[in-house]
Amino acid sequence: MQLSQRITGITGGGSDGWDVFYKARRMIAEGENVIELTIGEHDIRTDPVILAAMDRSARGGHTGYAMVPGTQALRESVAARIQDRTGVPTTFENILITPGGQAALFAAHAATCNTGDRALYIDPYYATYPGTIRGIGAEPVVVRTHASDAFQPRAEDIAAEASKGAASLLINSPNNPTGTVYSAETLEGIAEVCREHDLWLISDEVYDTQVWEGEHISPRSLPNMADRTLVVGSMSKSHAMTGSRVGWICGPKEVISHLINLATHTTYGVPGFIQDAAAFAIDQGPDLEDGVAAPFRRRREIAREILADQNTVGLIPAQGAMYLMLDVRATGLSGEAFANSLLDTHKIATMPGESFGTAAHGHVRVAMTVDDERFAKALKTLVDHAQTLAK
């Protein structure tokens, strides 16, 4: 007997680029004191008021099967949040609740791509993107961006791949791993390519509350884009609810109706008490979201001050999200080699830019996910290490 090629081919073979992360975790398991600046996990936990709402719901009996599309209350809360933030008319019928943003990404591609279709995505990219596309039987096709453009994608590069035939395009702004917030010009160019080449646009907007410069624009709000855009959202980053696994897809009603059928045959929904807590959290309004985002805004300013006094480590404009993309090419090392050197020498763990594709070769991604004092100390050490290597 053999396993399917679809399941055995999800990672594409070879290293997944996360070797430094696994190495750091082994060191921690062996008792070493490693400062982890790797994954996007908040150093705060879910707010106690949200947990209290979750507890009330569970103890109140909402522990059985919940409605597969999502509870009416949560679908309406998500729809109202999206409409308030984007100005696009949105109702509960435009919303499917999913077990986190990752399940939403999978479902969105299942809805828009047939087996063998070319599905475009932007490099650098969140690590699961190509595997998600392979998992639904499509062919992942990368569109590279450039550090010299602050990793803003060029419409002409997307069009060049779209012209060869493609079903969908996946974008992510604010971007993980680069921190880039796509400009109005960038998004208008992307929208034009989608309209011209009849592409579905899948917009991963899980960092929409973490914008430090510029403005988050949902491409669903652009002319003639609402009917061809699926927006992926999540409670993970905006409300520090990573472990609760609750996200959503926002899209045309017809698409959502078919995605409800997919959910019925796959996830069968999200626990009701978690959905109740998520609806409660959203209904607290932007003050709660701002509080969750505040540490990353503050640490970004700490980083800018530290990096301003040297010219060895370059900072890609950190416009949003909880990450910094640092250019370490002056050391003569790849991002992976630099990350290994930093971990071996100073027990500070970062993610190589190469973990997220080829466009960020010679960079490392730093997650701003430890307390201010440790973060500042670690970043200063990183700079000193880079300067030593550059000499």
Please provide a written account of the structure.
GO terms for molecular function: L-aspartate:2-oxoglutarate aminotransferase activity; pyridoxal phosphate binding. It holds the Pfam family Aminotran_1_2. Belongs to the class-I pyridoxal-phosphate-dependent aminotransferase family. By secondary structure, the chain is α/β, with parallel strands linked by helices. It folds into two domains: about 140 residues, Aspartate Aminotransferase, domain 1, CATH 3.90.1150; about 220 residues, Aspartate Aminotransferase, domain 2. About 40% of the residues lie in helices and about 15% in strands. It has a seven-stranded mixed sheet, with helices on both faces. A hairpin with a 7-residue loop joins strand 9 and strand 10. The longest helix is centred in the last third of the chain and has 22 residues. The chain starts with a helix and ends with a helix. The model has no long low-confidence stretch (mean pLDDT about 95).
